[in-house]
Amino acid sequence: MWLSPGMGVKRWLVLFAVCTFAGALGFLHFTWTGPLHFTATRWILWLNRFIEPEVLPLYVVGVGLMALALGGAFWSIAMLNRSMLRGTGTAPGTAVVDLIYERRHLARGARVVTVGGGTGLSNLLMGLKVHTGNITAVVTVADDGGSSGRLRESLDMIAPGDLNDCYAALSDSPVLARLLLHRFGRGDGIEGHTFGNLMLATLSEEQGGLGAAMQDIHDVLRVRGQVFPATTQPTTLVAVLDDGREIRGESQLATSVGKARIREVRLDPPDLPALPAVLQAIKEAEMIVLGPGSLFTSIIPALLIPDIARAVCDSAAPLVYVASLMTEPGETTGLTLEDHVTAITAHLGRMPDCVLMNSEPVPQPVRERYAAEGASVLDLTGASRDLRGRVRSAALLQDGQARHDPAALAAALLNLIARARNAA
């Protein structure tokens, strides 16, 4: 594996061998033409007493000696590396070459920007991190319920919950991912909070906001890729319904909409800044992925940041919307796929170039269970010709459930990137 393409090892091994050979020639020249000529001659004559030139020519002995010396040099370098790795706390052995190979391979992966929040985005990140390390997740921070809502109210910070889920999804360490998602079931003041939320709250408090703590977070967690909040300032999601009512707070949408439909959503305050790193990632992206996730509470809120919306609209990268598998009770009840795409277009100012849909039928028992809660399968019923032309389908179900399979979803998106590269 050390000699696999892209490892950056073969070139240095070749250079080492060439330099060693050149050094041997230089030493031979010095020995044969300099003051050591007498010693070299005596050495050859001494060998000649024990070796019959007709059986084993002396030049063969020289070649063998050179091979032994070169092998010894490589062995000494390997032992030096082993000692250095032990000194830095890295266990030597096959894990090292696996780690280096993995990092080199991931560094050459596609540059993907994902936008959204919730479990849908974290599932996507778990699938993508196997193929590329050039991932930038732009996460909505308007949540005001649960642990995030309590921390927002107490510390006047952005909601950390969706950020924490994404950090756990991109973590290289299963142990760290488990710790980040651990929710305290007891304890005065910390019951209901996750460890990751408390850690992000601590860094936010120490640095005066999560924006200033981003580098510290990435250094501590050592995730594959980057995770950034859509904005670093607290904001409230406001939904305007078609009956004229306004609902403030993301946590209120599902229960307060009733039979009305959401006409539009906005942020309060509206003109919020985005991190420069987010805008740079969008500029350099090979693909921008919206979702999967809740339409009005995960995807669109991140696109309401003016600088992000402008950067996405100006980007030449394909804009892909990963369609939800089911509608969400209250939030998108009765909406078609066309309605979902229209809502994104209206709020963003750019229509997705591609809509990725699941082609695998949702099992009937799952349909019935969701129908009892007021949800239905999102399909192409009533879709326009333009939308049908943008749809790409793939089998995306996970174990027959109404959720996206991370590996299948990542493979489908990478296939779209490969097609875009070939078309270019």
TrEMBL record:
Cited Pfam families: CofD
UniProt main location, coarse: cytoplasm
InterPro entries: CofD, CofD-like_dom_sf, Gluconeogen_factor
Alphabetically ordered keywords of this record: Cytoplasm, Membrane, Transmembrane, Transmembrane helix
Top-level taxon: Bacteria
Annotated compartments: Cytoplasm
Stretches that traverse the bilayer: 12-32, 56-78
Function: Required for morphogenesis under gluconeogenic growth conditions.
Family stated for the protein in its record: Belongs to the gluconeogenesis factor family.
This protein's name: Putative gluconeogenesis factor
Organism of provenance: Deinococcus oregonensis
Underlying gene: yvcK
